[in-house]
Amino acid sequence: MTTLDKLASALNRRDEVPNQELAKDIVRTNDKRAVKEPVENLAHKDKNIQSDCIKVLYEIGEREPALIVPYYREFGKLLDSKNNRLVWGAMTALDSITSQAPKGVHGLLPRVLDVADSGSVITRDHTVGILVKLGTLKQYADECMPLVVEQLLTCPNNQFPMYAEMSLALVNDKNKAALQKVMTRRLDGLQKESQKKRVAKILKRLSAKNA
Fold this sequence. Notes:
Elements: H1 17-29, H2 32-40, H3 47-63, H4 72-78, H5 84-97, H6 102-107, H7 109-118, H8 121-135, H9 138-154, H10 160-167, H11 176-187, H12 193-210
């Protein structure tokens, strides 16, 4: 059986279990050749196969990013797709490999940011994930921190506490005041008590860093 024969659509399955199991098998056997087939079929004429292939690839990325690192350019090309499933799937894959291929992913950053402004919640989640991972690296820190702050200022309330927590990985003496300002500014606008508590906890941690 080829890799395509094991996809959910080939097995007439509507759930994602076959795709997840395929990804696990590829990771377990470290089968680099098996990774290539779903990459080559991301442009298949059947959208079900496209969707299965990107699912397999980002599931691989979550478990063993090194296996999909060589294909960061292919994921970048998907950001221009009209198929939203491919767009957020590609962003998921890129997020998983950012730490291992920072230079390659950084080169895609303008397109990543464009997609974040018009994409789904999942797309935006992974945009912030990419920015935070890049921002932990010295060569990209000064560029990425303002971009994270911009996401904090404009993201929906539901996403704000998570993004605020993620941003803690980038805190230093130069930027913590800016983060405190953003979080204080948005705190009163949060509607759910659970959201306010999460942000208040972050502010407390930032204040402790100032002590």
